[in-house]
Design a protein that fits this description.
The structure is a homotrimer.
Chain A (H helix, E strand, L loop, with lengths): L8 E4 L9 E5 L2 E7 L5 E5 L13 E3 L2 E3 L6 E2 L5 E3 L18 E4 L2 E4 L24 E9 L3 H9 L4 H4 L1 H4 L8 E7 L2 E11 L3 H4 L9 E10 L3 E10 L8 E13 L2 E10 L6 H27 L2 H7 L10 H18 L1
Antiparallel strand pairs in A: 1-10, 2-3, 3-4, 5-6, 6-7, 7-8, 9-10, 11-17, 12-13, 13-14, 14-15, 15-16, 16-17
Chain lengths: 339, 339, 339
């Protein structure tokens, strides 16, 4: 499988572990996640070394993860701590692989590659998610496409004009100004749409919807597929810093070569105590990400075979600069590991 | 994929385009069909040249087909007429392939092969469908098998005695007379069953069901998979020309190597203003084609792997002469193109 | 396909043939089963030699099996006895392969290999199923895994302690004594758990549940995948022969390389006229075999690709002796035929 393994990915949202044991395939590996009695999230290879039963079907027993099939139990480091059979010997072959895990910014990060290379300092910054000046709502979605199709999608947020037309199109779209900034390990695409009428979605955030607004819609990419969006709106001519805005989590984790996990969120700096605003954003996330974007990219994935058969190459547009730069960087990282 | 591409196939029924945009896979190609403002049916390759979004998910904008993803728009010839991004340039790489289309006999014909070879004169005659002396009812069905299994099915209508036993079996089946006529680009199988009791279906067409009848059940094949049936019944001894009869549309279009589209119809010369007779024929089509034949041929398709594994060869019967001739002709046409 | 073909397998339960014609894939072959007018079960290759229609969609006509497509009919030996077409000739190519069949112990056994090698004396003994001193209840299940995963499951019944924990776990599990007996063509694993509290299931069989009990749980394997279980319970210290017990049918028949048929039953020597006891056992079979075991082994099957990709080898435990011996014997038999 053709993945970048030496990188941090999000394995789960902390809330997904509340009920105990979570199974999830990541970069083609079956992974089982659970919390130790000390509350530390752990991630183990998800098949029991004995008969390959799915440990995700197991239960927590005395703080360890117990295999559902013959009762072997493993601690948070993957060490087999119980063999209920025969003389109870536990040779090293009964231990399972543990993956480096870091819980930060209300996200559980995993390193699927060589553990010796895992450095938590390399985890990109999503601290907006726990910023007390902001309110975050979000969730998890499953998308049946190569994660790279969703990276392409996110690195040109101009698609909102069409895919999310009903809620997010702007009558000033032809005034759009773009900028792409390339930093070390980071690529950012900035979009400004000055002087438009508020869109249906933006109108829900504004008190006064009768004046023209400036709209900013930026997205930052960090290796391999963690994106942070900055969407802001303000009366025309207001400085960007004085806008009301949301920092959006858009983090993808490959499941297989043709499917991925999508961890999304919106961390807004306005109406942070207003449950109605929570609902507006949850509705938008479900509509835009789960319905609209998912339909488009799964439609592309469904044609992978015909694209390959005819050797089709994308005809790039001016709006693709950031997506192309990111795509080349992912190519480079992938080839680096397969070399 | 192993198809005859240089041939006319039916892409759709005109009624399927009434609501706008129709996506359909034909000979493995994703195709999008729509009508231009002048009412002309158009067929384009169904993936946007930019990011391969499915154009079938698009909408009509100013008479052109607009991609749902980033708003590129295409006219009926596949020419890109709108690029909303950057300086709006539209290099030739943004145009999509258009397929030759002819609307005739209430059918939309497509030529999936080399457009330079497309000659509308080669479209087989289905003018019975719009003959004012006849009444046509019909529809569309999807069948999960190689279209050639349905060609085999249709080229020996003797299968009706067994597959459609409840409605169409004849007590005079052992009096069956067969003839096969081979013309240029055309093969016809004639069946006569003289002096039988009317079947359940035929009894619904006849005023007097107490006399023995002669039954004709002929089928004409034209390349590659367009079949016209002639089913007629009359009191025993009546000339064929004086029968009440129906000309039946049975046109197949390969979707993939293991599935096909089935456009069917019945154009009758009796009871043409009688809605009850419409219903009798719609019921028969649903029962015979959609239920009974589909079950048989999908059952064969489901065993393709075991047939291949054991190298099974069909043991041919006397009734297979026409089917074998057609099958050899399709083989020849297929090999001609793959050579 | 990698099966042991020269062996007896169960094709069906007699009750499955009551309604006429049964289609079932066995070792990758489509098979059709029916009874001749004399009541003898017959098994034929399931595709008509003419056009490969599924004979399982056929009907019985004059005691023969008639193809649903063009009416060829076959007797119980596979001989074509009717060709309704042309001059009605029936060359040998119209005959279909018949498989050796033996109906015994309320099971229909089939020999998918070389008919010349089929010896009914090799069928393992399941006479407990029709023993008048016992009452048998059972059924059929379909499991989406390689049958060998279920053989592994059954050859170590210690898995009940975990997989069937709610009903069958014993508080004396750590007193477990094991013995493995290897005979010619037969391997048996014996388990004794002395002096435990009755499990939830066992308590339903006992009048006095307040005293400690001894539990026996043995399983006998015969080639290739026919297993007979002996589960017995008695007050602590009672001889095994005086126990109340059930002989359990656990017979697997490969369907494909990744799915199998499971014929199960329980033949008990207690409460044989008590319908409530029938229900207890049916509930247990559905819960333990259909729900719990099926979930575990299908979960393993679902990870076949990742197991192969990483070249994972099972880490064997003390409890696996019988399973490993059986597995090696099936390996040997498989290689014998593929050589």
């Amino acid at each position: 499988m053709n993945f970048v393994r030496n990188a941090w990915y999000v394995a789960a949202l902390p809330e997904e572990l509340h009920d105990g044991v979570l199974g999830r395939t990541i970069l083609g590996d079956p992974i089982v996640l659970f919390r130790t009695p000390e509350g530390k999230a752990s991630a183990l290879f998800g098949l029991c070394p004995h008969r390959f039963a799915a440990l995700a079907m197991g239960t927590i027993k005395d703080g360890n993860l117990q295999c559902p099939y013959h009762g072997l139990a493993f601690d948070g480091t993957g060490h087999c701590v119980l063999n209920p059979h025969g003389n109870g010997r536990r040779p090293a072959a009964l231990d399972v692989r543990a993956y480096p895990i870091v819980e930060r910014d209300d996200l559980i990060w995993i390193w699927p590659g060589d553990a010796a290379l895992a450095n938590p300092d390399d985890i990109p910054d999503f601290s907006c998610r726990t910023d007390p000046e902001r309110r975050t709502v979000g969730g998890y979605g499953h998308v049946a496409c190569d994660y790279r199709l969703l990276v392409d999608n996110l690195m040109d947020l101009g698609h909102a004009q069409y895919v999310h037309r009903a809620n997010a199109a702007s009558d000033a779209f032809d005034q759009l100004e773009r900028e792409v900034i390339v930093r070390e390990n980071e690529i950012e695409a900035l979009m400004t749409i000055p002087g438009g009428t508020p869109s249906v979605l933006m109108a829900k955030f504004l008190r006064n919807t009768n004046q023209p607004v400036d709209l900013w819609n930026d997205i930052r990419w960090n290796k391999v597929s963690a994106m942070l969006n900055f969407i802001a709106v303000a009366p025309h001519g207001t400085p960007k810093e004085e806008s009301i805005n949301s920092r959006g989590t858009h983090i993808l984790t490959p499941e297989t070569e043709t499917s991925c996990h999508y961890f999304f969120g919106s961390s807004r700096n306005f109406g942070i105590d207003d449950p109605a605003m929570d609902q507006v954003l949850r509705d938008w996330q479900r509509q835009a990400l789960v319905n609209e974007d998912k339909g488009i990219v799964e439609g592309i994935e469904a044609h992978r075979e015909v694209i390959r058969r005819y050797g089709l190459k994308s005809a790039m547009l001016a709006c693709d600069e950031a997506a192309v730069r990111v795509s080349r960087e992912i190519d480079r990282l992938t080839q680096l590991e397969s070399a």
